[in-house]
Amino acid sequence: MSVDRRTFVKGLVAVALAGGGLLAYSPVLYKIVKPKARVYKHTTGSTGG
Amino acid sequence: MSYPSYPYGYMYPNEVAVGLTWLPIIATYMLFVSIASGSAILLSLEVLFNIGLRRLTPLLLMLSLATGLVYLLGPLADLRRPERAFYILVYPHLVPSDTYSGVSLIALMAGLMWPLLVILLVVLGYITLYRGMWGSIIAKILALALAFTCILWSTYFALLQFTTIPLLTVHNLTPLIPVELLLESIALAGSIALLALLVHYRSLERPIAGILSQVILACSLAFIAFRIFQVFRLHAYMTGSPEATTFIGVFSTLNTVVLILAVLSSILAAHVNLRGSAISASLLALLSLLWVFVDRWLFAVNIQSISKTSLSVIPVSLDLASWALESTAMTLLALFVYYVLYTWVIREPLLKLEGSGGGVG
């Protein structure tokens, strides 16, 4: 199956736009994929917390 | 009662620790909301009243869908725990309960109004562009529902402001923000549609450019009148209290820029109407984009930085690098959706046939 040049260029433009967008958005995506573990702070001070 | 005093004035201790509730990306988000809702309002007005923009409906639909499908990425980037955002779509708090009385505005907009906007756009686009049912009662009802949804979307930033910034609610300093937001949305969507026409055809079609520029001119002039009235009201009747002095100090500089940009936009809209100039139309799109963006920045960042005590301004350092990156991402993804719709789905930005019964491609 062959893809004509025009369709190939159109596909390339679409992939570039989506790829660029996702790349620029990757810091937020990273936070979603790897959320920070919740840190529970335990107070052990002399006041009894 | 006395407030704790800090080098910056009177404010609550947690305001020093937390800083701004919303990040600057909210300004970009509201800009996208304006384009999506404004173009959908123009689309529904065309279906309801046949205002002469029928040939432009595919382009308005593409603009609205492209921005509407990506704008929630803005508040997603603003969240501290974005991985939990999914729950607002699955379990939106829409019905008041004993534990949580009231309705969450954010849940209403994200969980109900956003899917409604997308579904209405797709269905209305299908039955008008592909089935040619322009005058049918179903199309009219859908257009009415879409107009209502988009009026709510375009003015919702004001509701968010009134619920989160007590200064605006308690002192009623800028009561006309909802109307201004609606006018800005329609003017911005119109000028972006003009720019898109130019990009697609390298020239302006006089009848369409004439109607669009009249709409932009009417909206920008009404916006200027409302804003000047509000400034007059602030200076004539609301001054004297320390709260109003803080507000005027934060509001005035950027508001002057907004007014200048709105005046320039209206002049350019008049020029496009008279001459059909392509250069003026491009400049108009740029200036109206700047006008609306600066206004969103003014309310989302500057006014938000007023302390809850209303007596001082919270010192904030903005993370502009993240804002620029996230805004670029939203723009590129909106362009991607627009490109996909233009290349493979709708294909023709302007309807070929005029009058009822016209279809795509």
Structural overview:
The complex is a heterodimer of chains A (49) and B (361). By secondary structure, chain A is mainly alpha-helical. Chain A has 2 helices and no strands. Chain A has helices spanning 5-24, 26-33. The longest helix of chain A has 20 residues, at 5-24. Chain B has one domain: Formate dehydrogenase/DMSO reductase fold, CATH 1.20.1630.10. In chain B, helix 2 (25-49) packs antiparallel against helix 3 and helix 9 (177-201) packs antiparallel against helix 12. By secondary structure, chain B is mainly α. The A-B interface holds A 10, 13-14, 17-18, 20-25, 27-28, 31-33, 35 and B 73, 76-77, 81-83, 85, 322, 325-326, 328-333, 335-336, 339-340, 343.
List keywords for this structure.
heterodimer, A: 49 residues, mainly alpha, 2 helices, B: 361 residues, Formate dehydrogenase/DMSO reductase fold, two-stranded antiparallel ribbon, 2 strands
Quick take:
Chain A is mostly helical.
Strand content of chain A: under 5%
Task: State the helix count of chain A.
Answer: 2
Largest interface: A-B, 17 and 21 residues
Instruction: Tell me the span between the first and last alpha carbons of chain A.
Output: 71 Å
Overall radius of gyration of chain A? 24 Å
What is the β-strand count of chain B?
A: 2
What would CATH call the architecture of chain B? Answer: Up-down Bundle
